[in-house]
Amino acid sequence: MSTVLALRALNLGDLLVAVPALRALRRHWPEHRLQLATSAWLEPIVRLGGGIDELVPANGLHPLDGVENPDVAVNLHGAGPQSNEVLDALGPRHRIGHRGHGWDGPIWTDGLHERQRWCRMLTAHGIDCDADDLLLRRPDIGSVAPGAVVVHPGAGYGSRRWPVERYAQVAAKIDRRVVVTGTERERDLALAVGVPDEDVLAGRLDLTELAALIAEAHLVISADTGVAHLSYAYRTPSVVLFGPAPVEQWGPPADGPHRCLTVASARRGDPFTDDPDPALLGVSVDDVLAGVAALTSG
Question: What GO terms describe the biological role, i.e. biological process, of this protein (predicted)?
Answer without folding.
Answer: lipopolysaccharide core region biosynthetic process
